[in-house]
Amino acid sequence: MRSDGEPPLQPGRAGTRAFKEDTGVEPTYRIAARKVDIGTTAEAKALVSDPADAEGMVPAVAYVKYTHLRGATVKEFPRVGDYAEVYADGRRGAKVTGTAGRPKGCADPDEIKNWRNGQSYLLCNTFLIPVRARSVKVMWTEIGGKPFVWTF
Hints:
- The protein is mostly beta strands.
- The chain contains 1 helix and 11 strands.
- It has one helix at 41-46, and strands spanning 15-18, 28-38, 57-70, 74-76, 84-88, 91-92, 94-96, 113-115, 120-130, 136-140, 148-151.
- The chain has a 5-stranded antiparallel sheet with strand order 1-2-3-9-7. A 4-stranded antiparallel sheet has the order 6-5-10-11, with no helix packed on it. The protein has a two-stranded antiparallel sheet with strand order 4-8.
- The longest helix has 6 residues, at 41-46.
């Protein structure tokens, strides 16, 4: 994980970037990682089908706020939130998929319709990271793009 020499952003600080959605529209978003909640080993085991897969792991939930600043309306299924990842001690965590990994208060991107200028959503991603991780970062980047990195 690299930020190409740019210093990490503080939690809540935003970066702005145009992002090409799967539907072809390319709105500009303000992106701000707000916080990362670290759970327990018991919670990690409850998130996977085989509890052995979560041995020595804890869930880390990245809460990232996305604001549609300008550009075409995103009619449905925004994917901008899919690009936020959690890193622990420099290694990407294992992403938890499905509704079990979405905490209360976080929007479901598959239910967002007609996302217009000025509207914001809190989108969350859950990753399993080692229980003894010392450094936790959230990174958002689209494929081939320059990343935004927040240190927690």
